[in-house]
Amino acid sequence: MTAGLLLIGFPAAAGLAGLLFRHRGLARCFALAAPAFTLWMAAMCAVTNPEFALTLADFGPIRVDLALELSGTAVAVAIATAFVTLLVQAYSVAYLRDDPHYPAYAAQVNLFCAAMLLVVAADDLVFLLIGWEVMGACSYLLIAHYAKLPEAPGAAAKAFLVTRFGDVAFVLGVMVLGAAAGSFRIGELAGVPDGPAAAGMLLILFGCIGKSAQFPLQIWLPPAMAGPTPVSALIHAATMVAAGAYVLTRLIPVWPAHLLLVVAITAAVTMVGAGLCALAARDLKGVLAWSTVSQVGFMFAAVAVAAGDAALFHLVSHAGFKALLFLTAGVVIAIAGTNGSLRTTRLRPGDSPLAFWAMTIGLASMAGLPPLGGFYSKEAVLGAAYEAGTPAGVVVFWAGIGASLLTAAYAARLWLLLFWRGAPARDERAVVPGAEAFSLWALVVVVVAFGGLYFAGPFHLPELHLDLMALLLLATLGGFAVIADAWWRGHRRGVPAMDGERDPAVVLGRARPAMAAGFYAERLAGKATRAIARAASAAARVLDEQLVDRTAVEGSARATLAAAEETAAGHRGGLVRYLRLSAAGTLLVAAVAIGVGMWS
To answer: Where would I find the NADH-Ubiquinone oxidoreductase (complex I) chain 5 N-terminal domain in this sequence (predicted)?
Structure first.
């Protein structure tokens, strides 16, 4: 119990305390000590698998508990979160060495880690919701860290608003499930009737789509690259973006089977669409951002075939290679001295062998080359779909094969554009700062060794399928072949390396600008939002002017004046009119009295 509480409480306390610090040295100590201690507590939880529950509020038919449950798979996610946070903090010491706002940044990263760990460990939806919302607040602060960067405040606001839009549905879904089950404990939700379960899970799915940047709420993630590169690594690898997929895996027993097709369609559209956008992206971090959207789609695909462990296995694998890629991207951009644009960012492999091999290994794992972990985690997801025998399984299987081909294509394109365009020769090799080099080496070791978790890990995964492995490798090699052919044809025509026609993305043809812009989803969302705002404004104006002003206010005034005039006119009628009204009233009262008497 103690280890479980400290797992969340220590980084949260360190983050809150760190907000009070202004001394860089003290902030650095807390920044490194908190995730290191958290990693140790996560390892302790792997041995003890603690469970803890304390009733916070009992409303008779509904109860809210402070409940934690750390199963083997949850501990694996917690270890990945703490490990990546530790390396991000170590990397940030050097990366933000001249940043005056580093103390606040380090504290926010620790709070972010604590919030994700609360989502991982919570066994009560209300308790989980606290971590869910804290992550949203921390993401806003971290993305907007470079406040003087023109695009940073807007990107942070967009991330906050889009995820909040999904969170409204998430909260409603939690309320529906809790009311139907009489408890918010995740382990007690499996018995919820199909009607409330369907409504609640569809609402929660929408919230998870927002948090994990899946279609159609993916528009916030690429602009979020305006934050520091270590923040991008943290958000994309081990926190926030993975949180939506993780929550869905916890709630798989609640899903009505026939509605899993909705998750499958969402995953399929996201995997393929984001893969095309990554292939067309024009900057280094943009490629990695769209690749995150696509890779999280694989996790949703595993949920669609009720393979929670396969989703979590890919989540942990993705945390390793995506953290490596983003942190290496920061080193590459710093050495090249550019803003990350693929037209200008280029190095020779010998300029920094560490950056070259780290990027190569990360891209190979993401593309799914054996024996790296990315191959086994993708095979686990597609193997679960292969065995499912459901319409959802068919959808995600073939979408996953197509997405694997696209992943290999954009990984190969990025590798060629970064390292094989004949960058100017340097007098000496670039020196990677010690803290950054430590983070890269640690992640390289983890990514290389991760495939072993398939054979000896906490995840219950499908058996390897030789035919599926062959198909997955063919798809990967097919993606490499398409890019290699486009690259070679550009070379044979003598196109300069810096010319846009040398970019293998020319295979996309005239559709490339639309894909590079994310199929104009951001522009369409902006137009839709403005149209909705104009419609709402017009409706409010009509409601205010026609119903409230003219009908309720002015109409009641006119009716009062008319009644007053009629009453005044009646009082000016003279004696004869008074007698007539009296006689009519007397007859009416008599008729009513006789009618009531007869009825009785």
So the answer is: 59-105
In contact, 152 and 227? CB cutoff 8 Å = yes
**Distance, C-alpha 12 to centroid of its chain:** 21
CA 478 to chain centre: 29
Burial label for 441, CB within 10 Å (0-12, 13-18, 19+), is middle
DSSP conformation class of 63: E
High-pLDDT (> 90) share of the chain, %: 43
Distance CA 46, CA 113 (A): 18
Listed residue (319, 320, 291) closest to 415, CA to CA: 291
244 CA to centre of own chain: 6
Indicate the average pLDDT of the chain. 87
> What pLDDT, on a 0 to 100 scale, did the predictor assign at position 573?
60
Q: Are 307 and 378 in contact (CB under 8 A)?
A: no
Enter the tokens of residue 191.
Answer: 């018995």
Three-state secondary structure call for residue 144: coil
pTM over 0.85: yes
**Residue type at 87 in one-letter notation:** L
Q: 493: pLDDT confidence band, cut at 50, 70 and 90?
A: low
Q: Of the candidates 518, 511, 512, 287, which has an alpha carbon nearest to the alpha carbon of residue 416?
A: 287
Query: Do 332 and 380 contact (CB within 8 A), yes or no?
Result: no
User: What are phi and psi for residue 112, nearest 5 degrees?
Assistant: -60, -45
Tokens of 500: 């846009």
Please, what's the largest Cα pairwise distance for the chain? 119
Per-residue three-class SS string for 336-400: HCCCCECCCCCCCHHHCHHHHHHHHHHHHHHHCCCCCHHHHHHHHHHHHHHHHCCHHHHHHHHHH
Distance, in Å, from the CA atom of 224 to the CA atom of 218, rounded to the nearest integer, reads 11
Judged against a pLDDT cut of 60, whether residue 433 lies above it is answered with: yes
Residues β-bridged to residue 283:
341
Q: Kindly report the CA angle at 563 between 558 and 564, in degrees rounded to 5?
A: 95
578-597 residues labelled b (16+ CB within 10 A) or e (exposed): eeeeeeeeeeeeeeeeeeee
How far apart are alpha carbons 584 and 504 in whole angstroms? 96
